[in-house]
Amino acid sequence: MYNAAISRHSQVVRPAFDTIEINLEKLKQNLFDQLKLTPYISMFACPRYGVLLIQNPENKSDWRQHTKLTKKRLELFYRARICEGFELSAENHWGKTKAEIRRLLLPRANQLLHLASVKRLLANALRNGQKVLVWGSYVFWYEESNLKWEVKLTKDSYYTSSSKTLWIEGTILSKNHGHLIVLPYIKNDGKRINGHTKNAPNDYPALPRDKDEYIEVPFCKLEGDLMYELMGEMHYQ
């Protein structure tokens, strides 16, 4: 979601260093570097100095307002880097916000299936017996029931916790038609958990499969550089 937020603003003009108004000069370079990446944010956290900068809504160059950085405010900044890229508020319910972003992402994600380069990639994968390909937050999923590829999303940030590690050799057991996939992972105590499909709590319930239609399949991770090259012809509106 973070990468998608950044991509949506790839054509936005970044602010010039000299135009940034700030009281804490020592933070100016850090803020400038972040704005080059995410020019849409309205707040900036700097844990090193324990400060949260707040943008003046009436003057986008004015970052003179600041406050003490707390754990809650740092979390708010991390959320803002994602949701403000979709014109959503970081103050809103995080679960509902992520559900809304997924709804915004899926139509564009499905455009991938129409790219000739991706079609070739998926055709080769199918010939090699690969039916689940993972690239970042996107999953290309071959659905046996209708004999075609679909695009699903992974559960974001699920493996950043120190108690969970992605289990490459694991499989995904799908008991429903959920568009969200929890990939196999290893708990901190070494227990290995196979993946599954679901919908998020703030989405509609996932349509269940009949027991004789349950699917258990391995997955393959795609190289990031390869996929960015294949997606080079796609642009956000």
Describe this structure in words.
By secondary structure, this protein is an alpha+beta fold. The chain is built from six helices and 14 strands. The protein has helices at about 1-10, 30-35, 70-85, 95-110, 115-125, 225-230, and strands spanning about 45, 50-55, 65-70, 130-135, 140-145, 150-155, 165, 170-175, 180, 185, 190-195, 195-200, 215-220, 220. An eight-stranded mixed beta sheet has the order 13-8-12-9-6-5-4-14, covered by helices on one side. Strands 1-2-3 form a three-stranded antiparallel beta sheet. A three-stranded antiparallel beta sheet has the order 7-10-11, with no helix packed on it. The radius of gyration is 20 Å and the shape is elongated. The two termini are about 15 Å apart. The model is unreliable at about 155-160 (pLDDT under 50).
List keywords for this structure.
single chain, elongated, alpha+beta, 3-stranded antiparallel β-sheet, 237 residues, 8-stranded mixed β-sheet
Number of strands: 14
Determine the N-to-C terminus distance. 16 Å
Structural class: alpha+beta
Largest sheet, in brief, is: 8 strands, mixed
Q: Uncertain regions: pLDDT < 50 for 5+ in a row?
A: 157-161
In which range does the helix fraction lie? 25-40%
Mean pLDDT over all positions? 86
* Strand coverage percent: 15-25%
User: H/E series, N to C?
Assistant: HHEEEHHHEEEEEEEEEEEH
The gyration radius over C-alpha positions equals 20 Å
User: Strand arrangement, largest sheet?
Assistant: 13-8-12-9-6-5-4-14
Count of helix runs = 6
What overall geometry do the principal axes of the alpha carbons give? elongated
